[in-house]
Amino acid sequence: MDLYVLAKDGAQAQFLWRFIREQLGSNGFSRVKMTSSRFMPDGLNPANMTILLCGEYWMNPALRIIEGLAFEQRGALIVKVDPLTHKPQWPEVRSSEEGHALTKPGREP
Questions:
Q1: How far apart are CA 19 and CA 97, in angstroms?
Q2: Which string of DSSP letters, residue by residue, matches 66-96?
Q3: What would the pLDDT profile of 51-106 be if each residue is shown by its tens digit?
Q4: Which of 8, 52, 61 is nearest to 32 (CA)?
Q5: Residue 89's beta-bridge partner residues?
Q6: If pLDDT is split at 50, 70 and 90, which confidence band does 42 have?
Q7: Residue 70: burial class (beta carbons within 10 Å; 0-12, 13-18, 19+)
Q8: Cα–Cα dist 62/87, whole Å
Q9: Handedness of CA 76, 64, 27, 32 (dihedral sign)
Q10: Nearest 10 degrees: CA dihedral of 68, 73, 77, 80?
Q11: What are the strands, taking DSSP E only, across the chain?
Q12: What pLDDT shows up at residue 26?
């Protein structure tokens, strides 16, 4: 499973990832990518992706691409990160019918 960290820009994503990584611990993600404003989702499988929204993510034009392509409806797990604690706010229930069999990385449903 791939993890994409979406913030205002790539620099903010890298900065915040240092704090978020501590909260995730051993996460089981095969690849972690910081998304910039030039994020191009060509060839990506939303059913195999988790997107962390952190910092000032609403200012990143890539958010419009993610929303426009309906990544969440196509199986991507989209998780907001608490701005004060840097803890991801994982959804409580995710069924395999929605695309992901995970409720949290490394944990089976």
A1: 32
A2: HHHTTTTTTT-EEEEE-TTT--EE--S---G
A3: 889 999 999 888 888 887 788 888 888 888 888 887 888 776 544 444 444 444 44
A4: 52
A5: 80
A6: low
A7: exposed
A8: 22
A9: positive
A10: 60
A11: 2-6, 31-35, 49-53, 77-81, 88-89
A12: 58
Q: Which two structure tokens, joined as six digits, stand for 79?
A: 């998780």
Predicted model pTM: 0.73
Count, residues in the chain: 109
What is the residue type of 34? M
48, two tokens: 């195999």
* pLDDT at position 101: 41
Per residue in 9-25, pLDDT (tens digit) is 889 999 998 888 887 76
Q: 79 near 51, Cβ under 8 Å?
A: yes
